[in-house]
Amino acid sequence: GITVEEYKTRRKNLIKLCLDSEPWRTSRNLLLCVPAAPPAYYSDQILYPFRQNTDFNYLCGYPKPNCVLILFTESGKEENFKSILFVPQPFEHQRIWDGEFEGEDSIARSTGVDEVKFTKDIASFLSTFVTDNSKFSLWYNYQKAVNPDFHKSVMADFLRQGKYKKLESCDLFVQSLRVVKSPGEIALIRKSMEITEAAFAAVDHMIDEWQSKRSKNSPLFEYEIQAVMEYVCQLNGGRLAYIPVIAGGNRGTTIHYVQNNNKIDPRELLLIDAGCEYKGYTTDITRVLNFSNLTYEQKVIIGLVQLVQEACIQMCTPQYSLNDIYRRMITIIGEYLQVMGFLDLKLEGKQFDRGADRFCPHHVGHYLGMDLHDTPLVSKEKKLQPGTVLTIEPGLYLRPEYIPENLSLFKGIAVRLEENILVTEKDPINLSEKVSPREKSFLARDADECMIDEKAQRIIAKLISNTGIK
Questions:
Q1: pTM exceeds 0.90 for this model
Q2: In this structure, are residues 416 and 395 in contact, taking their beta carbons and an 8 Å threshold?
Q3: Are both 266 and 158 inside the same structural domain?
């Protein structure tokens, strides 16, 4: 897991970023306020599983709701900053329902904060801080309040007083720290990946069992696969990171199909998009599974997506940004679709991009970490940094309404392949390369293995070589 020393370092790095952004850093103190998430209710008194506010979790790791982390400087110096974690005061009656309170000293030891106080004292603390600091910058995201009750009961009135000299959100600074993973974080992502691998392997085994006993009276439903994956994740101390996509056939052309309630047709491809969350760190994997011999059309699309993905993975280096990789993906996909007759050969520029986007309407990937779509404030134009983890997930979705009649056998095919990649100083590392059931599908290792004509092979080879990667 994450050590207490790492939490301390994270807080120190955040204070430094905030101070470095201040031109008058030696004369003005900072006050940073990061609330924990509130509990969420399914219905009256019935709770959803709690998920902590990610930035709060990153800075102290305390897993309880309705807390507040306060960081503040003295003398405008990063080495003179202090941290206070405010937690709800427990009551005797509450112990019956929620169990024993951890205790202030224990919380301070596990989080490394300087002091633990009760949330009922926050207003008093803020009042004293204002009295002692005539000039200070307040770092608090009031536009997107993480904890609406805390904002309404404490911060709204504090903001109205206008005692601060500057009001900023520290969210971007926190996310700029989060986007580069420490060795401890990478270890947790690897563990989450091991659980994901076990979940996919369990699905693989389940399908083999079903196929060996298959009859007209024993259909397989998408929700059965979801249930197996959820079971394996929880059995290993994790949980599903999101509602998975278990989409048979044409349903895979709906990017966020999550109903997962249909019968699986063994003649169709099955798209599985699922991942695990383990101790706050997520994985995000997509595989396409076939139950019977692949058709020519299925092999063509799977082969193309694999070739595009390999070219994109090789670009996961500090030379490129996520948007650079996306633009390469769209170029390869678009020109291939023109060769095959899905797109007009005359399309170019923005019309070309829009045409390709119709068949792959999402980005090539996203940052990955404590959140599934991690650090959304970090620009995708930013060059990748060693230690960043991201997804590479090209796809082709051949919705029937987009397919000309002379290519009607391609209608309804949906293929997305998604890997989780660790950026290093040198070659990228595929953290998900062991996740099955990818090996049950047709694998095109190079253009010659794709069931596509020679002209298309030459186009793909040329496009991939244009990345400048050997």
A1: yes
A2: yes
A3: no
